[in-house]
Automatic annotation (TrEMBL):
It comes from Neomicrococcus aestuarii. GO terms for biological process: glycoside metabolic process. This is PIG-L domain-containing protein. GO terms for molecular function: hydrolase activity, acting on carbon-nitrogen (but not peptide) bonds, in linear amides. Keywords: Zinc.
Length: 255
Protein backbone atom coordinates (compact mmCIF):
# COMPACT_ATOMS: atom_id res chain seq x y z
CA UNK A 1 0.00 0.00 0.00
CA UNK A 2 1.41 3.41 -0.95
CA UNK A 3 1.66 6.39 1.37
CA UNK A 4 -1.24 8.85 1.24
CA UNK A 5 -0.66 12.54 0.58
CA UNK A 6 -0.41 14.15 4.00
CA UNK A 7 -2.40 16.78 5.79
CA UNK A 8 -1.03 20.29 5.48
CA UNK A 9 -0.48 20.35 9.24
CA UNK A 10 1.46 17.08 9.34
CA UNK A 11 0.59 13.47 10.01
CA UNK A 12 -0.62 13.80 13.61
CA UNK A 13 -3.57 11.55 12.81
CA UNK A 14 -4.52 9.23 10.00
CA UNK A 15 -6.28 10.53 6.92
CA UNK A 16 -9.10 8.10 6.19
CA UNK A 17 -11.95 9.94 4.41
CA UNK A 18 -12.06 12.61 1.69
CA UNK A 19 -14.99 14.10 -0.24
CA UNK A 20 -14.16 15.72 -3.59
CA UNK A 21 -16.67 18.29 -4.87
CA UNK A 22 -16.74 19.80 -8.36
CA UNK A 23 -19.09 21.59 -10.72
CA UNK A 24 -19.12 19.24 -13.71
CA UNK A 25 -18.25 15.66 -14.62
CA UNK A 26 -14.53 15.65 -15.63
CA UNK A 27 -13.51 18.63 -13.44
CA UNK A 28 -12.06 16.39 -10.75
CA UNK A 29 -10.28 14.29 -13.35
CA UNK A 30 -8.51 17.33 -14.78
CA UNK A 31 -7.74 18.89 -11.42
CA UNK A 32 -7.12 16.08 -8.96
CA UNK A 33 -7.53 12.53 -10.30
CA UNK A 34 -3.89 11.68 -9.70
CA UNK A 35 -4.03 12.80 -6.08
CA UNK A 36 -7.27 10.89 -5.63
CA UNK A 37 -5.70 7.75 -7.11
CA UNK A 38 -2.84 8.04 -4.62
CA UNK A 39 -5.31 8.49 -1.77
CA UNK A 40 -7.37 5.44 -2.67
CA UNK A 41 -4.27 3.31 -3.23
CA UNK A 42 -3.24 4.22 0.32
CA UNK A 43 -6.59 3.03 1.67
CA UNK A 44 -8.30 6.41 2.01
CA UNK A 45 -12.04 6.33 1.28
CA UNK A 46 -12.86 9.00 -1.32
CA UNK A 47 -16.32 10.01 -2.48
CA UNK A 48 -17.29 12.37 -5.32
CA UNK A 49 -19.97 15.03 -5.43
CA UNK A 50 -20.84 16.66 -8.76
CA UNK A 51 -22.96 19.77 -8.42
CA UNK A 52 -24.32 19.52 -11.99
CA UNK A 53 -24.84 16.70 -14.46
CA UNK A 54 -22.87 18.58 -17.11
CA UNK A 55 -25.94 19.14 -19.29
CA UNK A 56 -24.35 22.07 -21.15
CA UNK A 57 -21.18 20.16 -22.03
CA UNK A 58 -20.11 18.18 -25.07
CA UNK A 59 -19.44 18.93 -28.72
CA UNK A 60 -21.60 16.46 -30.67
CA UNK A 61 -25.15 17.60 -31.40
CA UNK A 62 -26.34 13.99 -31.58
CA UNK A 63 -25.52 13.59 -27.88
CA UNK A 64 -27.88 16.32 -26.71
CA UNK A 65 -30.92 14.17 -25.85
CA UNK A 66 -28.84 11.86 -23.64
CA UNK A 67 -26.03 14.16 -22.50
CA UNK A 68 -26.90 14.16 -18.79
CA UNK A 69 -27.06 10.37 -18.60
CA UNK A 70 -23.89 10.08 -20.69
CA UNK A 71 -21.95 12.43 -18.47
CA UNK A 72 -23.12 10.77 -15.27
CA UNK A 73 -22.08 7.38 -16.67
CA UNK A 74 -18.74 8.79 -17.81
CA UNK A 75 -18.06 10.26 -14.37
CA UNK A 76 -18.87 6.99 -12.62
CA UNK A 77 -16.54 5.17 -15.01
CA UNK A 78 -13.79 7.75 -14.49
CA UNK A 79 -14.21 7.55 -10.71
CA UNK A 80 -13.84 3.78 -10.83
CA UNK A 81 -10.51 4.16 -12.66
CA UNK A 82 -9.05 5.93 -9.60
CA UNK A 83 -10.68 3.76 -6.96
CA UNK A 84 -13.82 5.79 -6.20
CA UNK A 85 -17.13 3.94 -6.00
CA UNK A 86 -19.48 6.54 -4.48
CA UNK A 87 -20.54 9.40 -6.75
CA UNK A 88 -23.22 11.89 -5.68
CA UNK A 89 -24.99 14.33 -8.01
CA UNK A 90 -26.75 17.46 -6.72
CA UNK A 91 -28.64 18.18 -9.96
CA UNK A 92 -27.95 21.91 -10.36
CA UNK A 93 -28.22 23.31 -13.89
CA UNK A 94 -24.94 23.48 -15.81
CA UNK A 95 -23.92 27.08 -16.41
CA UNK A 96 -26.32 28.52 -13.82
CA UNK A 97 -24.57 27.64 -10.58
CA UNK A 98 -24.35 30.36 -7.91
CA UNK A 99 -23.18 30.11 -4.26
CA UNK A 100 -26.72 30.41 -2.97
CA UNK A 101 -27.90 29.48 0.50
CA UNK A 102 -29.80 26.60 -1.09
CA UNK A 103 -26.62 25.16 -2.61
CA UNK A 104 -24.69 25.72 0.61
CA UNK A 105 -27.39 23.82 2.49
CA UNK A 106 -27.13 20.88 0.06
CA UNK A 107 -23.37 20.78 0.57
CA UNK A 108 -23.65 21.06 4.36
CA UNK A 109 -26.23 18.25 4.39
CA UNK A 110 -24.03 15.95 2.31
CA UNK A 111 -20.89 16.66 4.32
CA UNK A 112 -22.67 16.18 7.64
CA UNK A 113 -23.92 12.86 6.34
CA UNK A 114 -20.51 11.71 5.06
CA UNK A 115 -18.29 13.48 7.66
CA UNK A 116 -14.94 13.56 5.80
CA UNK A 117 -11.75 14.94 7.29
CA UNK A 118 -10.77 16.72 4.07
CA UNK A 119 -12.88 18.31 1.35
CA UNK A 120 -11.27 18.74 -2.05
CA UNK A 121 -12.90 21.35 -4.32
CA UNK A 122 -12.48 24.16 -6.83
CA UNK A 123 -10.72 27.29 -5.65
CA UNK A 124 -13.12 30.25 -5.33
CA UNK A 125 -10.54 32.75 -6.63
CA UNK A 126 -10.05 33.30 -10.36
CA UNK A 127 -6.69 32.46 -11.95
CA UNK A 128 -6.39 35.14 -14.62
CA UNK A 129 -3.51 33.27 -16.24
CA UNK A 130 -5.72 30.32 -17.20
CA UNK A 131 -9.14 31.55 -18.25
CA UNK A 132 -10.01 28.27 -19.97
CA UNK A 133 -10.31 26.58 -16.59
CA UNK A 134 -12.17 29.45 -14.92
CA UNK A 135 -15.74 28.48 -15.66
CA UNK A 136 -18.14 30.57 -13.52
CA UNK A 137 -19.62 27.34 -12.17
CA UNK A 138 -16.17 26.37 -10.85
CA UNK A 139 -15.82 29.62 -8.93
CA UNK A 140 -19.37 29.38 -7.62
CA UNK A 141 -18.89 25.83 -6.39
CA UNK A 142 -15.61 26.79 -4.75
CA UNK A 143 -17.27 29.69 -2.96
CA UNK A 144 -20.26 27.58 -1.90
CA UNK A 145 -17.97 24.87 -0.50
CA UNK A 146 -15.87 27.38 1.44
CA UNK A 147 -18.98 29.07 2.85
CA UNK A 148 -20.49 25.72 3.76
CA UNK A 149 -17.29 24.50 5.42
CA UNK A 150 -17.20 27.31 7.95
CA UNK A 151 -19.16 28.14 9.98
CA UNK A 152 -22.33 26.36 8.81
CA UNK A 153 -20.90 22.84 8.80
CA UNK A 154 -19.87 23.01 12.46
CA UNK A 155 -22.61 25.32 13.76
CA UNK A 156 -25.61 23.34 15.06
CA UNK A 157 -27.73 26.49 14.81
CA UNK A 158 -27.05 26.94 11.08
CA UNK A 159 -29.71 25.17 9.02
CA UNK A 160 -31.34 23.83 12.22
CA UNK A 161 -33.66 21.67 10.13
CA UNK A 162 -30.62 19.56 9.20
CA UNK A 163 -29.75 19.06 12.85
CA UNK A 164 -33.37 18.04 13.45
CA UNK A 165 -33.02 15.41 10.71
CA UNK A 166 -30.06 13.87 12.52
CA UNK A 167 -27.40 15.54 10.36
CA UNK A 168 -25.30 16.76 13.25
CA UNK A 169 -22.71 19.50 12.96
CA UNK A 170 -19.04 18.48 12.93
CA UNK A 171 -15.64 20.10 12.38
CA UNK A 172 -13.87 19.71 9.06
CA UNK A 173 -10.11 19.36 9.23
CA UNK A 174 -8.93 20.78 5.88
CA UNK A 175 -9.88 22.11 2.46
CA UNK A 176 -7.72 21.26 -0.55
CA UNK A 177 -8.62 23.73 -3.31
CA UNK A 178 -7.48 23.28 -6.92
CA UNK A 179 -7.41 25.53 -9.97
CA UNK A 180 -6.77 28.78 -8.13
CA UNK A 181 -4.06 31.43 -8.53
CA UNK A 182 -0.56 29.98 -8.64
CA UNK A 183 0.55 32.18 -5.75
CA UNK A 184 -1.95 30.36 -3.50
CA UNK A 185 -0.47 26.91 -4.15
CA UNK A 186 1.11 25.40 -1.04
CA UNK A 187 0.47 21.66 -1.36
CA UNK A 188 2.03 19.69 -4.23
CA UNK A 189 1.35 16.00 -4.84
CA UNK A 190 3.62 13.96 -7.12
CA UNK A 191 1.35 11.75 -9.22
CA UNK A 192 4.02 10.20 -11.45
CA UNK A 193 3.27 6.72 -10.12
CA UNK A 194 -0.44 6.99 -10.98
CA UNK A 195 -0.28 8.96 -14.23
CA UNK A 196 -1.89 6.07 -16.09
CA UNK A 197 -4.89 6.23 -13.73
CA UNK A 198 -5.35 9.94 -14.37
CA UNK A 199 -5.16 9.33 -18.12
CA UNK A 200 -7.73 6.53 -17.91
CA UNK A 201 -10.07 8.72 -15.89
CA UNK A 202 -9.82 11.57 -18.41
CA UNK A 203 -10.38 9.24 -21.34
CA UNK A 204 -13.62 8.03 -19.77
CA UNK A 205 -15.13 11.42 -20.69
CA UNK A 206 -15.31 10.74 -24.42
CA UNK A 207 -18.27 13.07 -24.94
CA UNK A 208 -16.00 16.00 -24.01
CA UNK A 209 -12.86 15.36 -26.10
CA UNK A 210 -12.96 16.13 -29.84
CA UNK A 211 -9.12 15.86 -29.87
CA UNK A 212 -8.03 13.46 -27.10
CA UNK A 213 -4.34 13.47 -28.06
CA UNK A 214 -4.08 17.24 -27.87
CA UNK A 215 -5.97 17.25 -24.58
CA UNK A 216 -3.59 14.70 -23.07
CA UNK A 217 -0.51 16.60 -24.22
CA UNK A 218 -1.90 19.72 -22.57
CA UNK A 219 -2.52 17.84 -19.31
CA UNK A 220 0.96 16.28 -19.28
CA UNK A 221 2.66 19.63 -19.92
CA UNK A 222 0.69 21.20 -17.10
CA UNK A 223 1.73 18.46 -14.68
CA UNK A 224 5.40 19.07 -15.54
CA UNK A 225 5.04 22.81 -14.99
CA UNK A 226 3.24 22.34 -11.68
CA UNK A 227 6.02 20.07 -10.42
CA UNK A 228 8.60 22.71 -11.35
CA UNK A 229 6.63 25.39 -9.51
CA UNK A 230 6.56 23.13 -6.48
CA UNK A 231 10.34 22.63 -6.57
CA UNK A 232 9.95 18.89 -6.98
CA UNK A 233 12.51 16.49 -8.38
CA UNK A 234 13.29 16.47 -12.07
CA UNK A 235 10.84 14.24 -13.90
CA UNK A 236 8.07 14.66 -11.34
CA UNK A 237 4.49 15.19 -12.48
CA UNK A 238 2.36 17.00 -9.94
CA UNK A 239 -1.03 18.39 -9.03
CA UNK A 240 -1.24 21.49 -6.85
CA UNK A 241 -3.66 22.70 -4.20
CA UNK A 242 -4.22 25.57 -1.85
CA UNK A 243 -4.54 23.58 1.38
CA UNK A 244 -6.34 25.42 4.16
CA UNK A 245 -6.65 24.27 7.75
CA UNK A 246 -10.23 24.79 8.92
CA UNK A 247 -9.85 23.09 12.29
CA UNK A 248 -6.44 22.19 13.62
CA UNK A 249 -4.46 22.14 16.85
CA UNK A 250 -4.08 25.92 16.87
CA UNK A 251 -7.60 26.94 15.85
CA UNK A 252 -10.34 28.08 18.20
CA UNK A 253 -14.02 27.54 17.43
CA UNK A 254 -17.00 28.94 19.25
CA UNK A 255 -19.13 25.87 18.59
Amino acid sequence: MTEAPRFLGGDDFELTHVVAIAAHPDDLDFGAAGTIARLTQAGVHVEYCLVTNGDAGGFDESHRPDIERMRQDEQRAAAARVGVADVHFLGERDGYVAPTLELQKKIVALLRQLRPQVVLAHHPERNWGNMQSQHPDHLSVGEAVVRASYPALENPFAFPELQAQGLEAYRLRELWLFGGPEERENHFVDISSVLDKKHEALMAHLSQHPDPARMMDHVNNKLVNVARRGGQAEGALSEAFHAVTVNGASTISGF
